Amino acid sequence: MKNKKQEFDVAVVGGGPAGMMAAIRAAELGARTVLIEKNSGLGEKLLLTGNGRCNLTNAEFDLKKLVGHYNKNGSFLFHAFSVFGPKETIVFFGKIGIKTKIEGEQRVFPISNSAADVLEAMYIEMKKKKVIVLYNEEVKDVVFGKGAIEKIVLAEGEITARNYIFCTGGKSYPLTGSSGEVFQMIEKTGHKINALEPALVPIRIKEDWIKELQGLSLENAGISVWQFGKKIKTATGDCLFTHFGLSGPAVIDLSRTVGDLLKNGEVKIFIDLNPSLSQGQIEEKIKNNFKDYHNKSLKNCLADFPPRKNGLSDCQAFKY
Ligand SMILES: Cc1cc2nc3c(=O)[nH]c(=O)nc-3n(C[C@H](O)[C@H](O)[C@H](O)COP(=O)(O)OP(=O)(O)OC[C@H]3O[C@@H](n4cnc5c(N)ncnc54)[C@H](O)[C@@H]3O)c2cc1C
Fold first, then answer.
1. pLDDT digit string (tens) for 198-210?
2. Mutation test residue for ligand 1: of 90, 151, 178, 251, the one with most atoms within 8 Å of CB
3. Angle at 272 between CA 269 and CA 274, to 5 degrees
4. Which architecture does CATH list for 5-187?
5. pLDDT tens across 139-176, in order?
6. Residue/partner pairs of 70-73 with CB below 8 Å, 24 or more apart
7. Residue 73 Cα to ligand 1 middle (Å)
8. Is 138 in the pocket of ligand 1 (CB under 6 A)?
9. Which CATH class name applies to 203-301?
């Protein structure tokens, strides 16, 4: 691209899943399409998804129920999902060679359990549709004039197109390339950018003791989020203690609520290690333990009750 000017029908900025989908669709409709990616490869974040397995979509085909999971943004998403929802996503991936399966909580994964396969299939589809992909090209500026974008400026060279699509991701996980700088460039063109909020992220805990539990994983824990003495939301699932706080699917699901609540004040998180047992059943279990281990110290009596950091063979750090 060095010092060159190139013209296209559609220029897509960002080679994550959104940018690749946009480029595939534009090219399918006959547009001469370029995809500009600042990394040396596409879909860096996509490769991390679902712990490397890529949770492609959710097999909730009732769109009203589906958007109910998106809090206040649900109604905004309804139209988009009506045009291209979970069903269409499954069909699309099936057509490009990614057969899917449905797991717990209706989560849809590729049968191969491989996010890399998903990326490869999208890449092949772009190639088939003759999308031009530029790697190691960072958009440095967006030039606006006469009521429209005139061009986008790269480190060396520039691109003009009749239409521009910006798919540069949010701000989470900047190591994968989505560092958020493009939002300021787009704002200059008169678009309103809503304040970015964390969602689907691990949760930082301020208490220092959390570090001591780093590596401890809990299976099917009940996590509840509280504020001002009131329980606001709960989720059940796997949870992992990290060096900075909590992670794992259940925690990540709750992160948006926690982000919202933190604007009002302190948030407390409670973890129920055995959400399937009632208080009475737990008492019974502890009593039985005391009976069975009556010659042992209290610590050892409870040894098979709470999860332990050391000695758990399946204590793997899941990344989600
Ligand atoms: C650990 C983890 C696990 C996840 N698991 C799942 C899951 O299982 N299922 C799921 O649905 N979602 C999951 N997500 C969320 C999912 O990864 C994102 O929603 C998705 O990647 C967003 O796609 P995107 O194309 O909008 O942005 P991104 O994937 O962030 O892609 C943006 C692209 O734009 C490029 N870019 C940015 N700025 C510029 C610039 N100036 N010039 C050129 N290029 C630029 C970046 O390099 C990047 O390649 C997970 C996220 C993380 C972090």
1. 888 889 999 999 9
2. 178
3. 165
4. 3-Layer(bba) Sandwich (3.50)
5. 999 999 888 999 999 998 999 999 999 999 998 888 99
6. 71/256, 71/257, 71/260
7. 19
8. yes
9. mainly beta
